[in-house]
Amino acid sequence: MRVLVANRGEIAIRASMHVRLADEAVRLGGTGAQEYMDRYEVRFPIGLGCSHSYYCSERIVTIAKERAVDVVIPGYGFLSENTHFAELLREAGIVFAGPSPETITEFGLKHRARELAILAEVPVVPGTSIITSFEEAALEAKKLGYPIMVKATAGGGGMGLRVCHSPDELQNAMQTVKSRGEALFKDAGFFLEKYVEHGRHIEGQIFGNGQGNVLWFGERECSVQRRHQKVLEEAPSPFVLEHPELREKLRVASTSLAMSVKYKSAGTVEFLVDDKTGEFYFLEMNTRLQVEHGVTELCYGVDLVALMLKQAEAELQGRVGLTSTEMAENARTTPQCHAIEVRVYAENPADNYSPSPGLFTNVSFPKWDNVRVDTWLENGSVVTPSFDPLVAKVMVHAANRKEALEAMGKTLEATVLQGPLCNLDLLAAIVKADDVLSGNTTTGMLDHFNYQFCGLEIKDGGLYTTVQDYPGRPHRPSGVPVSGPMDPLSFRLANIIVGNREETEGFEITYAGPHIKFHGPAIIALCGAPFEFSINGEKAAMWARHVISAGSEVQIGPNAGSGCRAYLAVLGGLPNVGSYLGSKSSTPSLKWGGYQGRTLKAGDYLPLDKAASASAATITPYSLPHDLIPPIEDYTTVYSLPGPYDTEEFITAEGRERFFQTKWKVAFSSSRGGIRLDGPPPEWSRESGGEGGSHPSNMLGYGYPLGGLSFTGDAAVVFTADSPVQSGFICPQTTISCQLWKLGQVRPGDEVKFSQCSWKQAMELEHQLERYISDVKAAVESHGSEHDRPLGEWEIEHPIAGTSILYERGEDLSRDLPRFVLRQGGDRGILCDFGSQIFDLNTRARVQKLVLEISDRTPHGFVKVSRVHTMSVFVSFNPAIIDQGSAMRTLIDLEMQLGNTKEFTIPSRVYHLPMIFDAEECTRATARYMETQRPCARYLPDNIDFIKRNNGLEHRDDVLKAVRDVPFLVLASSGLMGLPILIQVDPRLRLTVPKANPSRSHTPAGALGLGGNTNAVYPVDSPGGYL
Question: Biotin carboxylation domain spans which residues (predicted)?
Fold first, then answer.
């Protein structure tokens, strides 16, 4: 039996549990992550806009016929109660796993369903037939007596229903219901019913075989609703447990109605039960599987989806349906347990249940024996605004209701959904509410439920506000930037002041800050560059701990002095922000990490840590003493270490001296991705970069140290938090780690001067900084206004210039050993450089073996992850464990132990990638470069023409021949986001060009570029220098 599932989300997964070989599903492109589709062998895009795709009956039936489908199961919603769809399937000879089209028609119109219920002697709510005018509605409403309900005759689920408490509300309710009925169900008809104010929603689950035989699987209570949409469902009903005689009455009413039309497949008969009298009234018949069917399955030990498919299979065999024997085998008489379900929605209860679309970074549900979760959600799933925001149904079962509620509370507490706001916290509050615990759950319960959101609301996101933690993502493989705070010192101090651990996530604010409303008590501190800062309109002090009450509004205005960044710490951090690649830090340029991989914007809601919020009443304000506040200035001196490439082999002695004499001006294009500096070009000691590229700044690619100062052509840029972790440009100096906070505060127009120091002096300055941070901790903990020792000196009294080359071994042909140079890569790294800037495959194998040695048998004090590139590997070590000299000697010994690598083999894979030659996106990027960075150069305006000329080729197609259907070897996966660096295996096909000078600020995702003699494929929009 070939089955097509015409639905999406969790119900598609639910159906897949019974769909076996050659089963099929309809897939809609552009709806975000659809991980569940992998469960099916064949998927089809419908090819329409998101809002209408699953309603396209003709397209789905065409797919079913093309694939020789036997049965279509629609799930719920969409086409599950669509008569036209069911008729099309019947005409095509395909079984619809549901009732007949005639039954769907009869019960699909609520006024007709009322008539059928009356004929079956089922009690109905006092009401009317179809209303044709406002005058008629007003007259009938007066007869019924307010409050009344205006109900669309088509559709269900509360989508076409409005309650009116007075005549003044009637006309607007009519218009709303008519428009919804027309838009959603192609039927504007409506009628009126008396509204039972203290009502309960109780429904009966039935299953028929189309021959008058109907099974009854008990009742469910679904009274806890928001906007007439169910939130909590349970079986059996707590009201029925208190009134056991009601179950038999509901059974008789439900089965009588179903038998009267010879109902087939699963269905639900909904009743309104008066909480005061116990009287019950027919509401409607849902001719489909209900969202909440799972609680009945748990309570009665039945599988309704399996039954639906068995009924469909019987029809496929030419029978009307299941036999009486088969029906009897599935009969159930009494509940086996108590089951409860809650619906988890990606919606915001604090904002009138508005949808909360977005990316979920961390999804975890308990996998306990008494828990069932129906969901399509997993890490990386994206909820779009195009569909219902239901993301999961969480169910529990236990021996009795009290135990089931306790189990649900524990289950929700153990559930983790980090990403856009969900109703998870609301659900946890509901299952602990007195009315729910006592079973006093009428349909209006949530209208008066006092739920307090404990979190913050972004009223205005400011210019560039992101979530960061400390230290971000150091030492990740495959081109993952470090990220984290640009000014880690101010960030750490803000956390210390509020009482957090130093690494706790907080907000980084650049130039102009956000406007935040706190919906719960909180402890906050703002540190860093001076900003306008107020709480509830009153000026507030920076570098101070503030205790704010629920409802407070915090306004952080524009930058008001030197520096450009401030950090807002909140006690307890931001628990709903998920960790990605080991950190909560945002990298907006790559659209990952932090909150939704972007800057904050108006309308964002982020929960607070409840325990921290509750502790606010016991915490007192505190201000850091003025002389403990670090200086932030327009002009700053930054200490650096020489290297990796600071020798006269690359830059003249005079040029190196002039570098340190220059006051570099921060350029306007500086950002978290790199601080660009305006100043004189270097005095190069070579004419070209050889195989790295024809400009003297060009190098064979290599791993970059954080804080490295690079010359991309003649332009200087410091690689900072969100910069690539490799480059093909020279890096003569690297900012020492404990000075990076200074660079994090520079702004366009500021001046920076570099001063060399030794590795030992860098460590001494770092230890001094850590002692200062300890002083701040002590002052905060003691509420001190004074401290024992003055703030440490921020300058090195007698800087000692070090050397960039830590060790060098020349080429040894007798032992078949290449040149091997250990170059200083900041205070935490060493660049192991092989050869002399010329690619050699045998030597590259030696590099790879060293990488594997470090990864597989990481030496003491070293970081497991290293950054390998064309002819080098960047190795990191922890200076708190091993000093630079010891690290150097360890690497020398490791390299000597590699032995002969000519026979060295490693596993490899082959990828075949499509490409478009001379793509329009690349042409636009070049035009943008000419407009914003450099209007004239040898490689402009046509990169391909320049590549042709630079390599002595005759035709443009000769450039294509060098890359099309040509084997490339991947030398590195680094740069940004795993950017692969490639080189043609056949050296005769290798081309050589200089890299862009200056490098581009924008390269389109997917671009294949050439720089030196290597190629790169840019995985995301990013800066780059390859042509």
Answer: 1-451
Q: Nearest Cα to 963, choosing from 917, 1027, 928, 894?
A: 917
Find out whether 873 and 866 touch, Cβ atoms under 8 Å.
yes
Give residue 337's pLDDT: 97
715, two tokens: 């332009």
3-state secondary structure of 9: helix
Instruction: List C-alpha distances in Å: 65 to 60, 315, 651, 829.
Output: 9, 18, 72, 63
Cα separation, 974 vs 647, whole angstroms: 26
Cα–Cα dist 405/339, whole Å: 9
Residue 314: which of 262, 263, 264, 268 has the closest Cα? 264
Residues 6+ apart with CB under 8 A from 939: 946, 993, 994, 996, 1027
Those residues of the chain that have pLDDT short of 70 are 19-55, 155-159, 786-793
DSSP 73: E
Task: State the distance between the two ends of the chain, measured CA to CA, in whole angstroms.
Answer: 55
Task: Give CA separation, 126 vs 148, 188, 220, 312, 381, in Å.
Answer: 10, 21, 23, 37, 46
pLDDT digit string, tens, across residues 209-262: 999 999 999 999 999 998 878 999 999 999 999 999 999 999 999 999 999 999
DSSP state of 812: B
Establish how many alpha carbons lie within 13 A of residue 516's alpha carbon, considering only the half-sphere containing its beta carbon.
30
Domains along the sequence of the chain with CATH: 3-97 (3.40.50.20), 126-195 (3.30.1490.20), 338-451 (3.30.470.20), 456-628 (no CATH), 635-782 (2.40.100.10), 805-896 (3.30.1360.40), 920-1024 (2.40.100.10)
Q: In the numeric block, which tokens belong to residue 618?
A: 């016991």
In whole angstroms, give the CA distance from residue 828 to residue 845. Answer: 25
Q: Cβ contacts of residue 882 below 8 Å, gap of 6+? A: 860, 861, 862, 890
- Residue 644, preceding bond cis, omega within 30 degrees? yes
Tokens of 521: 């008590």
Which among 774, 772, 778 has a CA at the least distance from the CA of 793? Answer: 772
DSSP output for 225-256: EETTEEEEEEES-HHHHHSTHHHHHHHHHHHH
CA triple 528-529-532, angle to 5 deg: 110
List C-alpha distances in Å: 79 to 98, 307, 726, 938: 11, 20, 52, 61
β-pairing verdict for 95-96 and 148-152? unpaired
Residues 6+ apart with CB under 8 A from 587: 481, 483, 593, 594, 597, 722
Indicate the pTM of the whole model: 0.89
Rounded Cα distance, 559 and 567, in Å? 12
Most distant CA atoms of the chain, gap in Å: 109
- Token pair, residue 283, equals 């509401």
Please answer whether residues 472 and 482 qualify as being in contact, where contact means their C-beta atoms are separated by less than 8 angstroms. Answer: yes
Tell me how far apart the alpha carbons of residues 646 and 823 are, in angstroms, rounded to a whole number. 9
Residue with tokens 């009322």: 114
Question: What does the block give as tokens for 167?
Answer: 């005549």
Distance CA 244, CA 849 (A): 75
